[in-house]
Structure formats: C-alpha cells, structure tokens
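Anyone else keep sequences and structure tokens together like this?

Example one:
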Amino acid sequence: MLLFNKVLNKLIKKNITISTAESCTGGLLAYSFVKNKDSSKVFVGGYITYSNELKNKELKVRKVSLKRYGAVSHQIAEEMLNGLFKKHKTKLCISTTGIAGPGGGTKNKPVGLTYIGIRLDKKNFILKKKFKGTRNQIQKKCVNFIFKYIDTLI
C-alpha cells in the first residue's frame, strides 16, 4: 500500500480531521490527500498562502513576524499552523514554508530550506529540513517527509 493511502486510512480510522496551509509546496500536500478515495471523510481543506499578504490576511500571521524573521522561518511556520487551527479546529493541521528554488536562496536561507509545522493532539511540532533537488523534487520530498512523519505520530 502506498504511504499516502496508508496514512489517510489511519487518519480515517481514527477520525482525525485534516487542514493544510501551504507556501512552498503550493497545494501538493493538499492534493496528496485528496487524490485518494474517501479523503473527504477527514480532509476539511487547505490554503495556498504563497504571498506574505495572504499569510497575514487568511492565517493571521503577524506582519511584524514576517518582517523580523522572514516568511521562511520557524516562527512563520508556527504562526501559519496556529492560524490554521484557529480557523478550522481540525485535529491535524499542517503548514509548510520554504524555498523550493531554483532561485530565491541566500547563504542563511538556501534553496531547499523548509519549515514544516504539524499540530496533532494540541501539540505543535516545528521541523526544519533541507531538501536537495529541483523545485519539483524539493516539493515532493517535503510532502513525502510529512507523510512519513505523520505516520510515526498516529
């Protein structure tokens, strides 16, 4: 059984509702849930908040945090996660923010740097990962990592 199906089936069995807030993965995370049959039993919905303006407007990410830490940071991943939870109250909330490339990286924040927020059972996990590859490979690796991580949590 594919990992995506395995994780989704476990979430359905445990009635764990899901919502997503994505930046660097651009909807791939949400699609990885909804491409599977029966996903509507637990997947509530998601946001693609690519711009800072939308992060602020939809998820209540603070402008001061965006300015101080930048969109690709531990703090923003957590604020996205908290904003998502406040809106939808799903049992599982997931946020992604990062630099998928090919440009946009700096010495301190290179291409492939990603922050992933996962909220489950009232606990926030903020993970910092560095993925290598093309833009598409980085996005896929991020989503695969998230599913593997969730599989260990549930």
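And example two:
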Amino acid sequence: MKSMKLKNICLAGIFTALVFVFTAYLHIPSHTGYTHVGDGFIYLAACILPLPYAVFTGAVGALLADCLTGFAVWAPGSLVIKAVTVLFFTAKGKNIISKRNLFALISGALICCGGYYLYESIITGNFISPLAGIPGYLTQSLLSSILYVVLGFSLDKLKFKEIYGDKI
C-alpha cells in the first residue's frame, strides 16, 4: 500500500513537471497568452493516476506554467479549468485509451474553450473580444488530444498500466 502511494506521488510529480515544461516552454504565443500541448499530459495523468493525484497534476502544472512565465493573471482560471478537465477522464480499466477517455477529449475541449472564454470575459469585463481566443483554445485541445492518443496508444502497447500497478 505504501509503495503504491509513493509510486503515485512520484508519477504525479513527473507528470506535473511534464505539464509545466510542455505548457511554459513549448508553446506558440497568442494575443491572450499561448497555445500549448501540455494538456495532453494532463489527459494522460488523468487516465493513469488516481483522481486526487491527477487533479493535482493538472492544476499545479498549469498554475506553475502561468505564474513562472509572466501570465500569472491566468493562473486562477487555469487552476480551476485544468482541475475540472481531469474529472471527465477515468483511470479505471486496463487501458489508457478507452471509449470514455476518447469522449472525454471532447469535454476537455469544451471546458478549455468555455472556461477560458468565461474567465477572460470576467477579468476584462468584455464578452466579445474573448471570442478571438477560441480558435487558439481549439487548436490547443486538438494538438493535446493528438499527443494524448499517440502516447496513450504507445503506453497501452507497452502495457504500462499493468506494469505500473503490479511490478514497478
């Protein structure tokens, strides 16, 4: 039991670092912030780790990326949006790629687009100009989904979840 908890803490730390790096440093700047593929690692974490660890990974990885790259104004929104995104995925089952998790990509895109639109509308007091950010959020969700599917299929082929749960 203790060894599994320690494995989850360590893997959550690794995923949090991956979310941070792929969000903060491997991104395309846009007028509102940046477009990145860090969400792909949030999706993976949500399909591998127990819920509290996955929520931590998504929320803290995105929060750190915003705070440490000069976009701290987005940090509160990212904290909530990424934590909620995780809730649509499941780590139950033997595979990362499942019907539920593939459908969760749609929910993730809607939460990303709608959440950031609403957050920007609130902080700017304008409900029209934040519409310009939606194409970037859709691109971010699409690219993150592609990364998730490619890595998820690869990890499933390696039977990662089976090995992670039993032998590591």
